[in-house]
Write a structure and sequence with these properties.
Length: 442
């Protein structure tokens, strides 16, 4: 009777794992990127309809800014509970639910009638969407080995940059539609929201919650993935006699630092996102589609910058220094944006986009490397939700400033100062797990 060769079995497992990783990436990453694109467009498309909301519904600058920001309040409140429910009901069911309900809420934006209904629908949209981003991050921890998650995250985050490029032309083109008793801006909300609803059906048919459910993986590939993830967990258990809890890490000052840094990044991203179309309109007499095309330029530049700085960070190791560097670039650009004509402001924001989009991509590997995977989903959700409150503060403040002073220069200067502060924090803070802490690299 022949005996199995342990060495050969190890080689077979390595080969099976490598094949499984390739299949997983091809199966789920394109879908997640498309979901992120649709997600981002539904979140920020109100930036293109600001003047229409004012003309048709009487929603002024302050009300627009508040409504734009309220999305992030409900998003923050429901982010952690949503992620916990994802772990309970599985990624397939819960991500389908998230996509379906946020699509309906996005459609509902077409039928707001004034300030109060505008506020209500933005709150509903935020609650519906909560849990998507950290849910995908958690999904990676259950399907991909430690060494593959960083690359998968980079591809997934590219969806945000790509969405920033596509949102302008797509939204601008849809706003040129008329008829059926709806304005162009209403058609934009309806069609972009329905795209999310349709995609929800595809998610239900395509996605699996666990590797064991994936019929497109062979049994050997399923075994290899499950064994690798379980081995990683056993290594954590061996290194830490006490299982870390989310509540213990919430008392960790390092988590607060992560929240502050991502809050500063989000301030700048959403300050630019929601007010850039208005700056472009002041540059000349452009229709909605032309505004959308101009809006794509900073984000196209940022895509190149994201990959350029990612390569530098991979080659010259010191992630925190690279995050600090790009935050300083963002600070310089935002400060310059408040000091000139609309055209020079647009050019300055193009420069700032190099910094704040690269900062967003370079930031996430730092908390991922700090947290134990057993509680990373809830804590990453917390960092994301608190950080995204910058999406409330920036537009709400900008709206008040413009209504009171007729200018957003003070807001742009404030964003520059916050980026400088965040650069200092991220550069000097110690962000690696220390011996005895209940944290371990993913």
């Amino acid at each position: 009777m022949s005996r199995s060769n342990p060495a050969q079995a190890g080689v077979d497992r390595v080969d099976a794992l490598a094949m499984a990783v390739r299949k997983i990436k091809w199966h789920v990453l394109p879908l997640f990127v498309v979901m992120f694109i649709v997600n981002y467009i539904d979140r920020v498309n109100i930036g293109f309809v600001r003047q229409h909301l004012s003309a048709d519904l009487g929603i002024g600058a302050a009300a627009y800014g508040l409504g734009a920001g309220l999305f992030f309040v409900s998003y923050a409140v429901f982010e952690v509970p949503s992620n916990m429910l994802l772990q309970r009901y599985g990624a397939k069911a819960w991500l389908t639910r998230i996509m379906f309900t946020w699509g309906l809420a996005a459609v509902g934006m077409a039928f707001v009638r004034g300030e109060m209904s505008f506020y209500a629908m933005r709150l509903v949209l935020g609650a519906a969407e909560a849990g998507f981003f950290p849910g995908v991050v958690f999904y990676f921890t259950k399907w991909l080995p430690r060494d593959e998650r960083g690359r998968a995250m980079a591809i997934f985050l590219s969806g945000s940059a790509l969405a920033s490029v596509l949102s302008g032309p797509i939204s601008g083109a849809l706003m040129l539609i008329s008829g059926g008793g709806l304005h162009g801006w209403q058609w934009m909300f309806v069609l972009e929201g329905m795209a999310s609803v349709v995609l929800a059906g595809f998610i239900w048919l395509w996605l699996d919650s666990n590797p064991r459910d994936a019929r497109w993986l062979s049994r050997a590939e399923q075994d290899a993935v499950v064994a690798e993830i379980e081995d990683e967990q056993r290594q954590r258990d061996a290194a830490h006699a006490v299982t870390p809890s989310a509540w213990s890490l919430l008392r960790d000052p390092q988590i607060l630092i992560f929240c502050v840094i991502y809050f500063s990044v989000s301030l700048t991203i959403y300050g630019a996102t929601f007010w850039l179309p208005s700056i472009i309109r002041k540059m000349g007499h452009f229709n909605d589609f032309q505004v959308g095309l101009f809006n794509s330029i900073p984000w196209l530049i940022s895509i190149v910058a994201m990959y350029f700085f990612a390569m530098l960070a991979a080659r010259f190791k010191f992630q925190q220094a690279w995050v600090a560097c790009v935050l300083l670039i963002a600070a310089l650009g935002m400060y310059a944006a408040g000091k000139g004509s609309p055209t020079s402001s647009f050019v300055a924001i193009c420069f700032a986009a190099i910094g704040f989009k690269a900062a967003s991509a370079l930031f996430w590997p730092i908390p991922q490397g700090y947290l134990d995977a057993r509680i990373s989903a809830a804590v990453l959700a917390l960092i994301n939700s608190i950080g995204n409150l910058g999406g409330f503060v920036a537009p709400a403040t900008f709206g008040l400033l413009e209504q009171k002073t007729g200018s957003i220069e003070g807001g742009l200067t404030g964003l520059a100062v916050m980026s400088v502060v965040a650069a200092g924090v991220v550069f000097f803070a110690r962000m690696t797990p220390r011996e005895g802490r209940r944290a371990l690299a993913l």
